[in-house]
Amino acid sequence: MPQRDRILECDHLGAFCKHTHVFRAGAGNGPLRELTFGLKDIFDVSGHRTGFGSPDWLATHSEASTTATVARMLLEAGATLVGKTHTEEMAFSLTGENAHYGTPLNPAAPHRVPGGSSSGSAAAVAGRLVDFAIGSDTGGSVRAPASFCGIYGIRPTHGRISLDGACPLAPIFDTVGWFARDAAWLAQIGDVLLGGTPATPGRLLLATDAFDLALPGAADALAPAVARVTALLGDAEPVNVSDDGLPAWFDVFRVLQYDDIWTTHRAWVTRERPTFGPQVGPRFDAVAQVQPHEVVVMRERRVGITARLDDMLAGNAVLLLPTVPDIAPLLKLPPAETVAFRERALALLCIAGLGGLPQVNLPFGTLNGCPIGLSMIAARGNDEMLLDIAARLGAVQDAGVRTANT
Fold this sequence. Notes:
With 406 residues, this protein is α/β, with parallel strands linked by helices. It has helices spanning 7-10, 55-59, 69-76, 119-126, 143-149, 183-193, 208-212, 218-233, 246-272, 280-287, 292-312, 335-355, 383-394, 399-404; strands at 36-40, 80-85, 132-137, 152-155, 175-180, 204-207, 236-239, 318-322, 359-367, 370-377. Strands 2-1-3-5-4-9-10-8-6-7 form a 10-stranded mixed beta sheet, sandwiched between helices. Helix 6 (183-193) packs antiparallel against helix 13, helix 9 crosses helix 11 (292-312) and helix 9 (246-272) crosses helix 12 (335-355).
C-alpha cells in the first residue's frame, strides 16, 4: 500500500487524476480510520475543481464550495481520501477509455479495458493502491468495472445515498457506488453510508433469460459461483426476468436515460460546444435526437417493468444473474464492436436501473484467465441484505486480503 499522501508517485496504473488531485486525512477516530479510499472525479471536494472526465467541463467550472455528502461521511468515519480517480467523459461509457486522459490499467487483465465510467476507482482497488473507492453507477459504471477487474462492487438502491455534490449524468438512474477487494470492507462501507440492518434472505431466483444473453463460455464459467451461493441460500428457482426480452428493456432504459441526460446537460453542451472523444461524441449526438412521444411511451413501460420486478423480488428474494455477458473487452476495439458489447451488457445492467434496485457484483468467476462476475439483485431497500450475503460468501476467500495489506 503506498504512503497515504503520495498516491501520484505510486500510481503505476494511471488510476488517479493529476489535474484534480486532492488529499484529505480522515477523522482521527471512527470505524474506517485505518482505511484509504479514492474518489471518482465527479464528486466535489471543497476548494478544488471537479473534472468530470472532460477538459472542457474542468475549464468552465469553478472550485467547489462544499464537499460531496458521500465523501464527507467517509472522512468523518475516519477514512483518508488519497486522491481523485479517473472517469470517462461525463461518466458516459462502459469501457473506461477516456480520449483526453487515457485508460487506467486493468490489473486483472492488462490487455483489456478496466470498465467505466468508474475506471480509476476500479483499477485503484484491484491494483491495491487503496482499500476501497467510490464510484457512481447510472447504467453499470460500478458493476461492469467490478466484474472486469475481479473485485466487489455495489450499486445501491436509487436515492438511498445522497448525490449532493456529484456531477449528474442522468439523475433518474444515477447512484453512488463503491468497490472493495474484501467483501467485509464492502459491507463496512455500507454500515457507514447506509446504516440499516440486513433482512433475512427469502427465495433464491436464477435469471435464465439473463444467463441466455451471456456469451459462449460465460455461463459455464459462473456455474461454480452459482453453486457457492446455493450452498449458502438453498436451491435457486429458475425465472424469466422479462417476458418481452431483456433487449426490449434496454430500449426503455436507453430512451429514458438519453432524455434525462439531454435535459440535464443541454444548456452546457449548447453554450460551450465541448470537444468530446470518439465514443462519447456520437452518444451526445444521439441523446439530442430522442423524441418526446418516445419518452412518454417508455415511461409507461417502465411502470410495468418496476411492478413486475417488485412482485418478483417480494419477500426478500435474491436474483442471480451474470453481471455482464462476458469478460472485459480488449483495449482499442473498433467502435462497432464496442457498441455491440455495450448494448449486450446494458440488456443485463438495465434491470437494476429500471427498478431502482440494489445490485452487488461477486468476483467469483474466471474465464480465459480473466475475471467475470456473478450478481445479486434484491428489492429496493435490501442493500444491507445483499452486503451481508456477500460478506458471508466471501469470508473464506477474502480472509487473507486484510492480512496481505497490513
